[in-house]
Write a structure and sequence with these properties.
six-stranded mixed sheet, 22 strands, Creatine Amidinohydrolase, single chain
Length: 405
């Protein structure tokens, strides 16, 4: 394995402590030993995706292309990045000593790394990600890897990292608080600077500029404007459009700014030049009440059914629907669980039993649609489960934000 050059004393990228990385490695080794695994091959997608978290969790590095961490039982992870052009950045960002690139034959290079750590004939866990969808290792990488090591036994171990990452440490929660503060600041900047006559893209520029100026990393920037009288969308666009925002519009947002990889998440709606239309005001009131009731119900020991019991009657009594998940796990990326109230959800998703514990972090985000499903908006906040209950980390007021014409 190639070793990184002597690190600079200057910190170029914020990170959790060496002690925190050591804690993570010990937790992974413990799970590996319990399963009889000699090594893990951990895959992460590009840094702009929700599938990039596992290598960042173990090494501190986020790759624009893809990356692997080869983790021997009881040994520090070996980082293999996607492109040799990125090595100087990896040396500055990663918090492990062994850093190299995968060349143009990733599977064969990973096999070589497994030989170097003495796992060529051992049991090897393959770790993909489990965000919105389960993502496994690229097929051609796996074919080359298994062909190169016919004596090894390979198995899916994606759930291993998922379990280790589920409960956040105090350092992680501190980073999430910082990310939440930065995310709130992007909403405040919109309220102060955004105006009618700008495009969605120009509003997005305010958000991204604010995040970068604070030393943050803009992770999610979903924004979409539409007429309140003749709405075309009920969920923000995933790429900012060139639509010009005018009086009578509503602007829907989902925003996440990260610190040291840990982002807040907030959902707020803006109205431009007018008061909210009555239909939108009622949707907002239902979404806000759902947030309040679920937050009150979501303490330690509460279950997924407690969450549904808190949310269900609010929407059902108003004859309204939901579209996006009611809540989902959160950390370095979107994580399980994803919970809905199936009776009113317009998208059917797999549900899983969940019991909330201190240290879990989720995004609570009721996405409410009108009875005819033509209008909709989402209110949301990053939440941490504490010993005493559930705490919303987004402090920006949960209200319609009014922008002058």
């Amino acid at each position: 394995m190639q070793r990184s050059p002597q690190a600079s004393t200057e910190t170029l990228y914020p990170s959790v402590s060496e002690k925190e990385y050591a804690r993570r490695h010990r937790a992974v080794w413990q799970e590996m030993d319990a399963r009889g695994l000699d090594a893990l091959v951990v895959y992460s997608g590009s840094s702009g995706s929700s599938d990039a978290a596992n290598c960042a969790y173990l090494t501190g590095y986020r790759d624009p292309l893809f990356s692997y961490a080869v983790v021997p039982s009881g040994g520090e992870p070996h980082l293999l990045i996607g492109n040799p052009l990125y090595l100087p950045t990896a040396y500055a960002m990663a918090r492990v000593r062994s850093i190299d690139h995968v060349t143009w034959d990733p599977g064969t290079r990973i096999a070589e790394a497994l030989r170097e750590v003495g796992a060529a004939s051992g049991r090897v866990g393959l770790v993909g990600s489990a965000g919105i969808q389960k993502v496994t290792l690229p097929h051609e990488h796996v074919l080359a890897l298994t062909s190169a090591l016919p004596g090894a036994e390979f198995e899916d171990a994606t759930d291993l990292l998922r379990g280790v990452r589920r409960i956040k440490s105090q350092e992680e929660i501190a980073c999430l608080r910082r990310g939440a503060e930065m995310t709130d600041a992007t909403v405040a900047a919109l309220e102060a600077e955004a105006r009618a006559g700008m495009t969605d893209s120009e509003w997005a520029g305010i958000i991204a500029g604010t995040a970068l100026s604070l030393g943050g990393d803009q992770r999610t920037l979903f924004i979409g404007s539409t007429s309140m009288a003749e709405p075309e969308i009920v969920f923000p666009r995933q790429e900012p459009a060139q639509r010009t925002i005018g009086p009578g519009d509503i602007v829907l947002t989902e925003l996440s700014t990260a610190y040291a990889g840990y982002a807040g998440q907030i959902h707020r709606a803006f109205v431009v030049g007018e008061e909210p239309a009555p239909e939108y005001q009622r949707i907002f009131e239902v979404a806000k009440e759902m947030c309040e009731r679920v937050l009150a119900a979501m303490g330690p020991g509460a279950t997924d059914e407690d969450v549904r019991r808190a949310a269900r009657p609010v929407a059902q009594d108003a004859g309204m629907w939901t579209m996006d998940a009611l809540l989902h796990g959160w950390g370095l990326s979107l994580e399980p669980p994803r919970l809905d109230v199936p009776e009113i959800a317009t998208i059917a998703r797999p549900q899983e039993p969940t019991t909330f514990e201190p240290g879990m972090t989720v995004v609570l985000q009721p996405h409410v649609l009108s009875p005819d499903r033509r209008r909709g908006l989402q209110l949301g906040s990053l939440v941490v489960i504490t010993e005493d209950g559930a705490e919303a980390l987004q402090r920006y007021p949960m209200e319609f934000i009014r922008i002058p014409a």
